[in-house]
Amino acid sequence: MKVIAITPLIAGIASATPFFFQPTVEPALLRRHITRSGLLKHVYKLQEFADADEKGNRGFGGTGHKKTVDYIVKWFKQWPQYYKVETQDFVHEYSAGSSELKVEGEVVDSKFFTYSPSGVLTEELVPAANLGCDASDFPAETTGKIALISRGTCEFGLKVALAGAAGAKGAIIYNNAAGELSGTLGAPSRPQGPYVPTTGISQEDGQSLLTDLQAGPVLATLNVDAVLENRTTTNVLATTRGGDQKNIVQLGGHTDSIVGAGINDDGSGVIAQLEVAKYLTKYKVNNAVRFSFWTAEEFGLVGSEYYIANLPKAEQDKIRLYLNFDMIASPNYMFGIYDGDGSGFNLTGPAGSDKIEYLFEKYYKSVGEKSVPTEFSGRSDYGPFLDVGIAAGGLFTGAEGIKTPEEAKMFGGKAGEWYDPNYHQKGDSFKNVNMKAFYVNTGAVAHSVATYAKSLKGFPKRDPSAPVKKRQTVEDELHALEHGHTKEVHSCGHKLPSL
């Protein structure tokens, strides 16, 4: 971990307590500093970084992401006596690309799948039986053809690997619900078989192709242009110099996007941290606060996983709790709180996770807002913290999940539509964030930071010897699906990849 050298500006003040003359932080005091105009200044900067990138996004390894990281570091360097800034560089495999699909000479809208190999081929289509989750789903005539596979039940990568093992030259996965389809194969390779060039299409187009196949052979041309390479990427961490360094209140969000500027996903969580960190410098903290900015979340919690994996056990034990803020300004928002006590989704967190949930419930009530629990499945950057027994919680305003009529009554907006219609699309830009949700939730971030930075009274102490509950995995979710459990998994990009 690289530490940026910082020289004190005021001689003679001990670095551990640089602002001993300041008032102790209070939730109401910290919250009052948050303004919509302050949030918007950062929104426009992140949009600028994406617009300047050759791919128009802030994906890890690209210029848009690097500018985001540099911006965060520069932001914290304004207060060298208050924060110690660390950058954590490492290498991870990067994948990006594009796909083009023509069927009988007609263009069909298609989307690239992360980790798909490149290839140009013209072959007949062969439909997979069932959902393509078993080798027997691919008939003998799949060899040398393009497999047409429905989304559902198992991971995209497994479908494609099995198609490759059956001899397919390419794969087309069509949605099992209305709308276009893009995604990830989940890993660079799989033992079940070789990946083949892959693209995703809508449910409507997939059903149309199945109808055409009933009338006879269908010829398709698939062109996938992919890049797969190792790239250096960076986590950023800023920790207060003041406060008890053995009782750290940590919070985080991710710095990368997939398509477009990613202003909601997760520019919103990044920006909330930046503004709260700015005004925290006006106060003394009793417990240390660590702001965290994770890279490559969209590739599978890469940054947070790397951080925890490389953090010594003795340092892990100093973290009393972790707060995650990923997508907190969705256009068709709900005010969702991670279900730390398990009352909504029967997935509890380590001791103290319930306390965090209750804190946010009380906050929303105090500002005249309702809230709902959202599943505590570990599919955002709090997951690695759960794995080592650290209490966690946070907020989420929704992604591709469907808003219910009851939620529309509670929060406004449109029932029957995605919480974020621009999720993982170019429309996730400065034009499409809900400023009310953004403002209210940044207030919640300030409230939680101030509460725990002031006191951890009543919050359970870490027990390093306590058994750690296994985080829910993809296999767990598959088992739940097979047994008829279909509750929506609210997370950022790490819902079961095939759903």
From TrEMBL:
Secretion signal span: 1-16
Enzyme nomenclature, EC number: 3.4.-.-
Known cofactor(s): Zn(2+)
Pfam families assigned to the protein according to its UniProt record, in alphabetical order: PA, Peptidase_M28
UniProt keyword Metal-binding, yes or no: yes
GO molecular function: aminopeptidase activity; metal ion binding; metalloexopeptidase activity
GO biological process: proteolysis
Gene3D superfamilies per UniProt: 3.50.30.30, Zn peptidases
PANTHER family named in the record: METALLOPEPTIDASE M28 FAMILY MEMBER (PTHR12147), PEPTIDASE M28 DOMAIN-CONTAINING PROTEIN (PTHR12147:SF26)
Family affiliation: Belongs to the peptidase M28 family. M28B subfamily.
Protein name per the record: Peptide hydrolase
Organism: Ascobolus immersus RN42
